[in-house]
């Protein structure tokens, strides 16, 4: 018999429960990818994600060729495409790994029900997260709103489950009338993303390379160096995790082995905890689905957000006149990624100092990040804006100058991304406005806002939230 494995954001062959089930229970497996961005509602993949997806599908295609098969590409809608494939190949079963975005949960539930009614065997599997969002609950069976107790619960549930091997042999079925990768039209028309390939290798092999680097080297310093944007102090696995080219289980097994071999535990727990944030973000999105586009804390509906397109554009283009903010926004544009500490700082500048709604920032990130992920992005933005779960007290507004002095003390990060300031003396690098005429002489703008005044305005705005 034949089983269809419907690949979605699990673009790998290892630790793939749907693929393992299909290969063990059936004689042949038909691997299928269906392009159906409309089914993702308001959050169809943005431009940087589409660039990544193109290359990740290409990589999976090559990996499947090595098993003498191919990834059968189709353009949606998903249900009708699966039905047509079942009809054409006589497939008896459809398997997939679960996704958790609200629009996709609704779609998958409906597809599962319809196919089952038609006598097709359908099963979905868990692999993207440590645990499903409904498997980590408080003693009262409620979802968590605070990370630390969530993590304590989840951490206690984690055993040493090894990742699943790629099924061997993998007997693959082919189907007729597939689309070409180019027909999916994923690549941007402008050459904006050309530089991305200097920084990234989408696909399972690229993910494993990043993981090796972390295991060999970076993990040891992870706890201390993860806040330094100039260094490669973090794993940079986020786009690989988003597209499911690697699973948390694969990461953990590899890192555990490296730690056992070197005898140096340091770094492992802080790293697992960071992956715990990813589970937490999915937990929040699953249990509070409106949080992807509405304030989780409804009191923030009263916040006096300011709309100003010209100011928003300055932020997007990295022309705010605040060096660390501009460095981050330019890193994002050039590489499709931004360091976590800097994400918090640029988000705080937009939502607090500039007073713009977090959704403006979330949408820009959505289009420009290669790791754009609805759960992680919504959680990150709402956390910084103060409207989400587990947010820091509102008055803790990041000061981009003191943050730069602390986390980029030599200014390497700023010099890398803001070439106007490359040769600025250290005392002016973080505050180029401190000497009259200096910024202008380098073609660099003066700050769009006074840091202190805009901080005070944010605090005043917050009074509306507090007092109703
Ligand atoms: P590492 O430090 O190596 O962490 C390992 C993995 O843990 C990451 O790859 C990621 O999957 C997960 N992780 C780490 N921190 C977080 C976090 N705070 N929340 C959820 N998961 C986390 N991350 C995304 O993957 N996609 C997004 O769209 C996204 N948008 C963000 C927006 C804002 C405003 C903020 C403040 C954070 C956002 N993050 C997002 C979280 C975080 O910045 C990135 O996951 C991280 O910078 C990725 O780099 P890394 O893989 O080197 O991280």
From TrEMBL:
Gene3D superfamilies noted in UniProt: 1.25.40.80, DNA Cyclobutane Dipyrimidine Photolyase, subunit A, domain 3 (1.10.579.10), HUPs (3.40.50.620)
Q: Print the organism lineage.
A: Bacteria, Pseudomonadati, Pseudomonadota, Gammaproteobacteria, Lysobacterales
What UniProt keywords apply to this chain's record, in alphabetical order?
Answer: Chromophore, FAD, Flavoprotein, Lyase
Query: Which cofactors does it use?
Result: (6R)-5,10-methylene-5,6,7,8-tetrahydrofolate; FAD
UniProt name for this protein: Deoxyribodipyrimidine photo-lyase
Site Electron transfer via tryptophanyl radical: list residues.
Answer: 305, 358, 381
Q: Which PANTHER family match?
A: CRYPTOCHROME (PTHR11455), CRYPTOCHROME CIRCADIAN CLOCK 5 ISOFORM X1 (PTHR11455:SF9)
Q: What is its EC number?
A: 4.1.99.3
User: What's an example Gene Ontology biological process for this entry?
Assistant: response to light stimulus
